[in-house]
Amino acid sequence: MISRISSFAHGGAMLAASLKVQARLADQQAQTASGVKSQTYGGMATSTASVLTLSNQSARLAADNTAATSAAAYVQASYSAVGEIADLATTIKTQLASMMSSSTLDAATTGQYAADWLTDLQALLNSRQGDAYLFSGQSTDVAPVDFTAAGYAPSAGADTTYYQGAAAGRTYASSEGQKLGLSVRADASAFEQLARAIATVAANPADASAIASAYGLAGTALTGVGTLQETVAIQAASLEATTAHNTARIDAIDSLVSTLKDADLTQAAVLTTQYQTQLEALFSMISTLSSLSLTKYL
Q1: Which of 45, 133, 176, 233 has its CA 20 to 30 A from that of 145?
Q2: Any idea which fold 64-255 has?
Q3: Quick one: three-class SS letters along the chain?
């Protein structure tokens, strides 16, 4: 059958129009099925840059939280270890008080007490969380304390020669530049004072004045250890607050990304119906034009 010459151009135009409507219909149907505006960033047009930027920011904050959670476990272990050192200092002070009230001092017994205390203190200061030493600063792979280290002479006064760790403390650093201290170092004054109090007893186990001096030093050390534990507690609270703040930001960012990416299902349903109606009308007109022929008008 030969179509009318004038209907050929109209048929071509309607066919092109129908293809456009089909593409729009397919897009709305895809949005309805997937729940998002597009399966690719390219399909989100002007929202692409914002979605990428926000998604990257969310990923960085999530990575920060992972690191902060690990740091929090490290700090919690440090808090517990410092608490045990405080308990040891309390025990030492109590036993020294008992020795001071005694009319006689048994050098062998007192000396053994001192040796045991020093062993316990070194073990606690060399505590680890996983493979990381808690009190060695940035050198987490190095045991921070060795009370047999060459040159360590506490009888001469304050001496931290026993310390084998790093001079710089360990820190948590976020992707945005926030820094928080983690734990404390084994060369802190309170720890040094407690070690020196024990060394004083070990050097003069039968000397009442040495016991009294050690008692006073142990008391000062105990107060200082309490302060160190408070410091670590503040670190733990800061990490917890950082994690909570980051989580809130991640939720807000992800919600915004979802708004930019997610399809408006109500609008998609309306447009789908409209495009289906348009498509049916175009197909009907194309069918009518294709049925026309020159023979009917001769």
Answers
A1: 233
A2: f41 fragment of flagellin, N-terminal domain (1.20.1330)
A3: CCCCHHHHHHHHHHHHHHHHHHHHHHHHHHHHHHCECCCCHHHHHHHHHHHHHHHHHHHHHHHHHHHHHHHHHHHHHHHHHHHHHHHHHHHHHHHHHHHHHCCCCCHHHHHHHHHHHHHHHHHHHCCEECCEECCCCCCCCCCCECCCCCCCCHHHCCCCCCECCCCCCEEEECCCCCEEEECCCCCCHHHHHHHHHHHHHHHCCCCHHHHHHHHHHHHHHHHHHHHHHHHHHHHHHHHHHHHHHHHHHHHHHHHHHHHHHECCHHHHHHHHHHHHHHHHHHHHHHHHHHHCCHHHHC
